[in-house]
Amino acid sequence: MSGEHPVPPECVRLAAALREVRDRTGLSLAALGGRTPFSKSSWERYLNGKKLAPRQAVEALCALADEPPGRLLALWELAEQAWSRRAAPAEAPVGPPVGEPPGPWRPWVRSRRAWLVSGAVLAVAVAAALLLLTGGRHASGGSRPGALAASSPYPQSFEPGCKGEECEGADPAQMGCGAEGMVVTLLKRKASGGQRVEIRYGAKCGAVWVRTMGLHVGDRVELSLPGADTKEVRAAGQRDTEVYLSTAMTVTKDPAKARVCVRPASGAGVECFTAPAHGESV
């Protein structure tokens, strides 16, 4: 997004948000290029603000990071509008535009045209801002199932970074096991303290993990399966209470035996949930 014109602040914010999500995946530029339809050099330009990222690139990065796309897509809408205005050539009319009446009617026509354009831009900006505030989620707090699939025109043909035993103890986001078309949500629950937990199974990876949000500082979430080591994630600081966290993966051929427990830092009672046999959503 560089050039002779200054970079709009909306584009700067989008690039910063993309870098933040990419950092959470732990993937290199080469790995991003290998797991998405966009090249390593393209990702370098998108993340450093040299070029406006396409909507599909934003969606692909969110899928790899196991991140609901609503917030970044709202930023993208605002950045795309700013980028279009920046790229538009300056107009230097010599006379009244074709079809515009002469004389005293001309200022009224120009004012009306400017009002209509401004109104349209404002309406789009308000819609994007509302999406940014809700994070692209339903009022119930969960992300809309299949939302990314409905808006992604490209095929998800990339392979995860691990399969089977290679995935034991690995990070699901770094391995790409939570990408679109590769994950099943077996269970979604909300604990009495507001903590939200999901048991997720990556079919290609052959592993299960827990994704959680809404933790309080010090809260712990544990994943257990018979005969496997317990995996745990803890909210160590304020930042961890504002984003999704995931446990490491446990390899299994029977994900229905997975069990998640929430251990509040407040000392309140432990709450545990077990995945149903056939899952709840995809």
From TrEMBL:
Q: Which residues cross the membrane?
A: 114-134
Statement: the UniProt record of this protein carries the keyword Nucleotide-binding: no
Q: Which InterPro entries match?
A: Cro/C1-type_HTH, DUF2690, Lambda_DNA-bd_dom_sf
Domain of life assignment: Bacteria
Q: Which organism is it from?
A: Streptomyces olivoverticillatus
What are the protein's UniProt keywords?
A: Membrane, Transmembrane, Transmembrane helix
Report what the protein is called.
HTH cro/C1-type domain-containing protein
SUPFAM superfamilies this protein is in?
lambda repressor-like DNA-binding domains
Which GO MF term does the entry hold, naming one? DNA binding
